[in-house]
Specification:
Length: 483
Amino acid sequence: MTDKNELAQIGVVGLAVMGSNLARNFARNGNTVAVYNRSPEKTHALIEAHGEEGNFVPSETIEDFVASLERPRKAIIMVKAGKATDAVIDQLAEAMDDGDIIIDGGNALFTDTIRREKDVAARGKHFVGAGISGGEEGALNGPAIMPGGPKESWETLGPILESIAANVDGTPCVTHIGPDGAGHFVKMVHNGIEYADMQVIGEAYQLLRYGAGMEPAEIAEVFREWNSGDLDSYLIEITAEVLAQKDPETGAPLVDIIVDAAGQKGTGRWTAINGLELGVPITGIAESVFARALSSSTAQRRAAQEGQLPAGTIKALDVDKAEFIEDVRRALYAAKLIAYSQGFDEIKAGSEEFGWDVDPRDLATIWRGGCIIRAKFLDRIRAAYDNNADLPALILDPYFKSELEDLIDPWRRVVVAATQLGLPAPVFASSLSYYDSLRAERLPAALIQGQRDFFGAHTFKRTDKPGTFHIEWSGDRSLTQTD
C-alpha cells in the first residue's frame, strides 16, 4: 500500500532491479519507504507490482522525494556508478538539510567515495559509501552490507540497515566498517576475492571435465557433495546448479552453450590495481582478472587456435579417477584459502594507508551471510583473528596452517597434472607459487637487486651488516657504502 501523508524512514533513488528489490526489502521489514526514479514509469511499475508488500511513498520529483522523508533524512542511491551518481548526489544535497544522510549503495570506486564524502560534508550533510553484496536475491531477501562514512551516520542508519541485512546465528550481516571510503574499499576487495574464487572453481571444473573426462551433470554431483564439507559456500552451491542445467532449446548442457568469454564490471580490476599501488601481492586475485580478460580476447584466441600453436607433449591422466577428484577438491580448498588470505592482506594494508582501522573480525562475521563469497570457513577466519588480531597472514593461523599440511601435496599434484594435460590453471598455479614464495628461505630478488644496481646504481643491502651499498660495476668493481 502507499500513503502520501506518511513520512518515510528511508528512501531509494534508482529503481532498476537492485534498487527495486532493496526498496521491497525495506518495506517488507516494516519500514515506510520513499521511492523515486528519473523515469516515473519505473516508480509506477514498482508500486503496481509490489505495492501490497509494505508502505511505499512514491514521488516524481527529487523535491517531493526529499519532502517525504522523516528527519534526519536518509536516502540510498542505486544508480549507475560514475557521473550519474554524482548528479543524483548533487540533486539530493541541494534539496536536503544539514545533518541529512546520502548513501551510495552502488559499486563505487572508493577514491570517488572519499572525494564525495568531503564534498557532501562541506555542504553540511553526511555521505555514506555502502558496499552491498548478494546480487538481486540478496537485495530482496537479505544482503551483506558494508557501510563506511561518519560514525554518527551509523548510529542513525544502523537499526534500519540491520532490519534488512542477512542474519547468521542472530547477528545481522552489517556493521560500520570505517570512515569515508572504507565501506566501498572493503566491498571492492570482497569482489576481488569473489573473482579469484569463481576462477579457481572454473579451473577445477575444467580439470574434471577435460582431465578426468567427466560430463557436466556428473561434475554437478561432485560439487554438490563438496558443498557438504569444508568447501560449503554459496559459489560451490550455485556451481552445481549451473552444471546440472540443460539448455531449454537444445537439451545440451547449458555450460556448453554459453560463450566462454567472461565479463567484468570493474571491481576485480580495481582490486588488482590497488594491490599494485599498495604493494600487496594479491596474485590469485590478479590472475583471475587477467583470466577474464584473456577469455574475452576472442580474436586473439581464434588466431592462436587457427594457427595451431604447438602444445608440446600432452600426457593423459594416469591416476585413479576418484583420487584425482579428491586431489582437485583439496587443491580448490587450498587456493580458496589463499584468495581470502590475500584479500585480508589488502584490506589490512588499505586500512593502514588510509587510517580506517578496519577490524577483520567484523568482515569475517558479516560475510557469513547474504554476500556472494559467504562460506563455511569464514567462522574459522573469524576465530583466527579472535586468537590473533595481528596475524601476519591468515594462512599462518595454526588451524589453517594445519589444514595446509593436508592440502599441499594434492595441490602440487593438481598443478603438475594441469601442466601435463595442457590445461590452463592460472589461479591454482599462481597461488601455489605465492605460497612457496612466502615459505622460501631465499628468493631470486637478491639477483634482481644486483641487476638493478648494475644498470641503474639502485644500490642494495647486505645480509652480513647494516647499510646501503653499490658496486662500481663500470670501474674497479669495488664496494661503496652509500649510507
